[in-house]
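Protocol step 4 of 6: structure prediction from sequence.
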Amino acid sequence: MSDSTTPDWDAPEVVSKRDIAFEPKASFWLRFVANLCDGIMVSIISIPFAIISASTTGTAAALSQTAQFILSFFVLAYWVGNQGGSPLRRKLGVFILDQDDGSFIGQRRAAQRIMMSWVSGIVFLLGYLAMLRHPQSQTWHDRVAQSVVVKR
């Protein structure tokens, strides 16, 4: 058992800017699978709210759906910002890290990244496809949050 300040899982070590630039980036399809993993984890957390929404109507259902959205958003922002991704994403070895020093990006930048990922998807997935032509394989939302997605 570890002390309360150390995570129970193997956190990626902080590296220098030079090291993070040469670290292997996650491929398009690996990132796709990692995003599915994030969705699965958030869905599991959202189940109680989905049950409430399905069994009620009107204001109660709307409030439950709103709470579900807010909780999902902040839980994902916490995971990405403080741990590099959801537990399943981390099991895959895919981490979202700072593009400069390889540290976790923090919740504020994770929230910005999540919101920009919606834009990346809405615009015919161009934001996601942009990684195929970027030297560091960064999507639009990676560039906004100044993050990279690495495979460890």
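Step 5 (inspection) to follow. Helices lie at 17-22, 28-55, 58-83, 87-92, 106-122, 126-129, 140-145.
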